[in-house]
Amino acid sequence: MKGMDNKSVGAGDRPGQGGTGFSKKGFILAAIGSSVGLGNMWKFPYITGENGGAAFFLLFIICLVVVGLPILLAEMTIGRGGRSNASASLFNLTNKKHWKWFGLISIVTAFLIMSYYGVVAGWTMHYMIQSFSGALSDVNMDYAAAFLGFAGGYMPLFWSAVVMAITGFVIAKGVSSGIEKFNKILIPGFLILLLILMVRALTLPGAMEGAEFFLKPDFSKLNEESVLIALGHSFFSLSLGMGCMLTYGSYVQKDQSLGKASLAIAGGDLLYAFVAGLVIFPTVFAYGMEPSSGVGLAFIALPAAFAQMPLGFLFGGLFFLLLAIAALTSAVSILEVPVAYAMEQWKWSRKKTAIILASFAFLLGVPSALSVEGTSGPLSNLLIFGKTIFDLFDFSTSYILMPIGGLIITLFTGYAWKRAGEEAGLTGGIYRTWMFLLRYVCPLLIILIFLYSVGVLDFGTD
Ligand code: PHE
Question: Which residues are listed as membrane-spanning (predicted)?
Answer without folding.
Answer: 26-42, 54-74, 101-123, 143-172, 184-207, 227-249, 270-289, 309-342, 354-372, 392-417, 437-457
